[in-house]
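quick one, 184 residues, struct below
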Amino acid sequence: MSLIQSRLDEHNLTLPPPGAPKANYQLIHRDGNVLYLSGHLPIRADGSMVIGCCAPPSVIEAAGEGITKYLTTEEGYEGAKHCALNLLSTLQSYLSEHVTVAEGGKRRAGDLSDIAKVVKLFGIVRSHDDFVEQHLVMNGASDVLGKVLGKDVGGMHARSAIGTNSLPLGICVEVELIVRLKDL
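---
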């Protein structure tokens, strides 16, 4: 975990406290060495959420102040970064509570260094009809995973990014994750 912590420090990133489900589901389902993480929200460290609808600059400029809060691609990217940090926090909590690893003749609690590979990210971006940069928003999550877990483990994964007109609680992005653990 010390390598993971040094990467977090190097990039000035902090894992927030792990969250709880916002409805009737579990955050992680384990099948062998594969962990499936439910969609995570863009919750900031202070508990606030990144709310709004990603839109192209022309729509944002024309809209002015209105009922819908429009976000730039960069603001959506920041939201996706928060999703990734929340996913990592959930993973760290789960691994430390439910996984033990044999190391040097002893057993230790699991941690993020026990992830062999980020297999796939799936991102849903709340989007204006004319917004076509969902993939750039999702780079926020991909970039965080690559920085924290390393390029080979976290940065090179399969990914889908789609747009939708609405997401729960008015959030701008929701991200699901599939990871494979090392043979423990």
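The two ends are 15 Å apart (CA to CA).
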